[in-house]
Design brief:
Strand content: 5-15%
CATH class: Mainly Alpha
Bound molecules: zinc ion
Number of strands: 4
Largest sheet: 2 strands, antiparallel
Radius of gyration: 18 Å
Length: 182
Amino acid sequence: MYVTSGHDTEIRLTLEAAVDFLNLAADHDLDARALLDAHGFLRAKQASEPEIERIEERMAALLPEFLSLPTADADDTTAWVNIELERINIAPSLTIHDDAPLHIHWTPASAAFDDQVIADVLMALAQEVCDHGTSRFGICAATDCEHLFYDSTRNGSRRFCADPRCASRTHTADHRARQKSS
Ligand SMILES: [Zn+2]
Ligand SMILES: [Zn+2]
């Protein structure tokens, strides 16, 4: 039986939030506050407008590196993750709140919301790179889609981003191609 620990789940959820954020920002279709709230960032609703704007700016600055992950060299990825980690203020603490199991907060409760979000994303990525390298990151296989995805399937079978239209229009096109050739 396959059981994900809380730790693995935390990394997956944070990276899925980051990927969603970056894809929607690239499409100019992002409501950052609503997205972070939907992905379980408890402070999103109360965060100030400047904090939300800084998250948008800081995530946009990380976009090129995230997009390079599917084809990245391990040493290059290690180098840029370390550069980014040096820039942030991390002060880990064990915490338990709401219904969540005991987990690590990377920034103190007094940290600005943008510092918290960026620290969460970078620490999730740092742990991911240690556990799986960059192998779980991919670019959507649909024609005309450049979205990033994070593949948490057990057998690494993911091919498309979270947009359901990408999988369906590709399958329709494949089906038509097969009918024509038969
Ligand atoms: Zn927490
Ligand atoms: Zn796609």
